[in-house]
Design goal:
Layout: H1 17-38, H2 43-69
Amino acid sequence: MSTLWSPRNDDSATSDREVNCQKMVEPGFQVIVDCMLEAGWTRGELMRSLKRLIAADNMTQKENAKVEAS
């Protein structure tokens, strides 16, 4: 499977991983935002939906961790 992003660079102990991650995610995120706005969704609707998706993913990760621990 091909990847859309370059692999993370763990070579530098001084690199700011969160900033580097954000830089890698931003172009794809902007494509999603642009497509949704063009489809007629408002920015507020989109941002609330993204927040809910993040919350759902966090909940799924917690549930998966519980299952794996048992």
